[in-house]
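Re: the 203-residue chain
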Amino acid sequence: MPISFKVIYMRSNKILDSALVKRYINGEEGCLEILIKRHQQRLYSFIFSKVQDRNVTEDIFQDTFIKVIRTLKKGNYNEEGKFLPWVMRITHNLIIDHFRKSNRMPAFNSTNDFDIFSVLGDDKLNAENQLIKDQILNDVKELVKELPEEQQEVLIMRIYKDMSFKEISENTGVSINTALGRMRYALINLRKLVEKHKIILIN
C-alpha cells in the first residue's frame, strides 16, 4: 500500500532543507511541496508586512516558488544548506520589483561613487526605501570588514549607527570634510568588493 503524503510530511519534519532540495532535484517532486509548506507562513507573513495587500502577497508568493522551481530545474542552485535565506532573497527582490513597477520606489543606479547609498539620507525613510536599506545592509555586512579601518569606522557610524557626519567628525576627531571623504572612498571600495565577489545587491 502506498505511503500517504501526510505520513511522508510527518516524517519529513526531521529532514534538513538541503536534503529535501537534493531529493527534489533528483526527481522526488513531493519534496518541494514539503519545503513550501514548511516555510509558507513565514514567507507569506514577510511579504504581507511589506506590501499590505493579500492579492499582491499571494502573487509574489507564487512568483517566488516559480523562480525557485526554475532555478532548481536548471541546476543553478548552489546555496547548499541555506535554502530559506536564498528563498527570502528571491522574495525580497520580487517585492522590490513590485514597488518599482508601481512607481512607488525611487530608481537609482550603482554609479562610480556607489550612489546606491543615496537612499540613506537624514530624512525618515519610507517603507520602500527601508526595504532597500535592509537588503543592502545584509548584503554588504561581511564586505565592510574588508575595508581599511578608518573607512570601516566612518561607514559603520553612518550606516549602522545612523550618525550624522557632524557626530562622526566629533567622535573621530577629524573634520566633516575628512569624514565625508572617507565615506566616499569606503563606498567606492565597497563597489569594487561587490564586483569582485559577484554579489547582486538588487535584481
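The chain has two domains: 5-101, 115-196.
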